[in-house]
Amino acid sequence: MIESIARSAGFPAELRVLGWARRNALVCITGALYACAVFVGSAQEFEQDSWLSLSGGRDIAARGLPWHDRLTALTHGARWVDQQWLGKLFLYGTTVVGGVSLLFVVHVAFVLAGFAGAMAIARRRGASDRAVFWVAAVTIPTAPWAWQLRAQSLSYVLFVAVLGLLAADSVRPTRRVWFVLPLLALWANIHGSVTLGVALTVLAGLVQIVRREVRGVALCVGGALCLFASPYGFALAHYYRSLLFNPLLEHFVGEWQPSASPGALPFFALAIAVTLLLGRHWRTLSPFERLALALTAAAGFTAFRGIVWFLLAMIVLVPKLLDAEFPRARPASRLVIGTAALCVLAAVVIGAGAIAHVPRKIAAAFPNSVAATVMQQSAAHPGMKVFASERYADWLLYEDPALAGRLVYDIRFELFDRKLFDELLAFHEQTGADWQRMLHGARLLVLYRKTDHRAALALRRTPGARVLYENRDLVVILRAPAA
Predict the structure, then answer these.
(1) For the whole model, what pTM was predicted?
(2) Sheet containing 466-470: which strands, arranged edge to edge?
(3) Which residue in 320, 369, 371, 442 is a FRET match for 263, CA 20 to 30 A apart?
């Protein structure tokens, strides 16, 4: 009836809401389900990297771009550049304006924009509503750790935009592909995953060079130079090398470990399914698109944190393969349209509840009373060092900026050499007679029971030690002054 009224009024039926809903109902369902999943996981989205982004952003706002470490005692003065400076500054500025609730909203908006943008590009490429639904739906539970609030969440939409432009250009060359370069330049100031975007751009350029297209050279050179489109310039080369080619990181950061545990089984299953589809419909995708899937899959096999890029690439590229395998697609029925409306409504309700409760959830995981205790003790003992497990280090630094230079270490493991990694490992595992060396004279200790339970038991029993606070997750210990 709505369409008939619109038609009688002289408006094309395709422009009406009902017509759009019929064509995209399944995509709407997937987007709503993804939003619900992100909102439900809100309690786990504030982690170490979240606080690192906020504490780093505030430091940049107060003192400008860092060229040396000025936040922790153990590596104080060591050469260090903050490649993510713009992303951190944006997240911190958002918090200043609207607190953690607004920060959470903005974070979810960027995460959803990447997912929704990938689906929109897939539809624009001619994939059916049904194919996009199935491909996008199977990616939702595969990498929930990618929803963590950090600078990386700002880069998903940039990855999708870059891949979409390069894929479209590989099918029909257009001058719009040059928008890739400013996107990469922006990305180079937000997150280190720009290396993957540059790799895709160079890959697209190489494909063009093989075809004897001169513009491929400009794409390769321009894309590579965008890695250094930052106030730090070519000083970023050391940063990229210390992160991408540091074999020690995987021992302390779970996301840097190779995808070989049971948690990666869904990713392996998807990679196999995509390979089979690609083998059956090889010519459905262009050479660049096939190589892009291979490159992002390789990123996923290399480390857990790389899986998310393969999933986004899947949503953009694989629906056309699924349509080639199952060519018959029917328009959405009224039942499907109604289900989509209910799913969108559910996402709105769940989102509103998550936004309202996010401050309480953060306070439960990172108690204000602990921060107050640390601030009180550090103010009473101005020269005292503070040691905190990785989970709490950057959170305490954000809560108390006066800890800068007095906090023993934080999660910027790219600053560590092999000696410091060995000290940290000895502390976590209590190996060797000198396992407490990692404390480096710190008197105030904030320890996470999950990783440092045995160390906490031993340290609280040392002569003169006092437990200032404890709950099921953490313990705060004040040690006696050294004799």
Answers:
(1) 0.91
(2) 386-388, 444-448, 474-478, 466-470
(3) 320
